[in-house]
Design a protein that fits this description.
This protein has about 120 residues and is mostly helical. It has 2 domains: about 60 residues, no CATH class; about 40 residues, no CATH class. Helix content is about 45%, strand content about 0%. The protein contains 3 helices and no strands. It starts with 5 loop residues before the first helix and ends in a 44-residue tail after the last helix.
C-alpha cells in the first residue's frame, strides 16, 4: 500500500523519537486504541448493514461493491487464463480464421464475425 523503503522508515523513526521523545510509548498506545476503535466501529456498521438487508443477503460481501472486484467477478470470469488475460474463442462453423488450433487469436488478427450476433 505504501511504498516506503528502509531508508525512509529509519528517517521516520528518528523523526518520531525527536518529536515525541519520552512520550512515544504513550502516543503509540493511544494510536493503537484509536485504530482498534475505528475497526470496531467498521465491524459494527458492517454487521448492522447485513442485519438490515435481511436473510436473503446473508452472503453479501461489501468487497463486492468495489468496482474492480465487480468487473473481475462478473465480466472477466470467462477468462481461460486470468494471469495472461487471454480469452479462447469458439469459432462459428461458417467463420474462416487463421487462428491457432486452440482458438487463440494471433497478433493483429480480428475475431470472427458472426452476423447472427449483430
Amino acid at each position: 500500500m505504501f511504498d516506503v523503503g528502509l531508508g525512509e522508515m529509519v528517517v521516520l523513526v528518528v523523526l518520531a523519537l525527536v518529536i515525541f521523545g519520552d512520550r512515544l510509548p504513550s502516543v503509540a498506545a493511544q494510536a493503537g486504541r484509536a485504530l482498534r476503535q475505528v475497526r470496531t466501529m467498521a465491524d459494527n456498521a458492517k454487521r448492522d448493514l447485513q442485519e438490515g438487508l435481511g436473510p436473503e443477503f446473508k452472503d453479501f460481501d461489501l468487497a463486492d461493491l468495489n468496482p474492480k472486484t465487480f468487473v473481475r467477478k462478473h465480466l472477466l470470469e470467462d477468462l481461460d487464463d486470468p494471469s495472461t488475460g487471454r480469452y479462447k474463442f469458439s469459432e462459428p462453423s461458417h467463420a474462416t480464421s487463421s487462428s491457432t488450433p486452440d482458438g487463440e487469436l494471433g497478433y493483429g488478427e480480428r475475431p470472427p464475425y458472426d452476423p447472427d450476433a449483430t
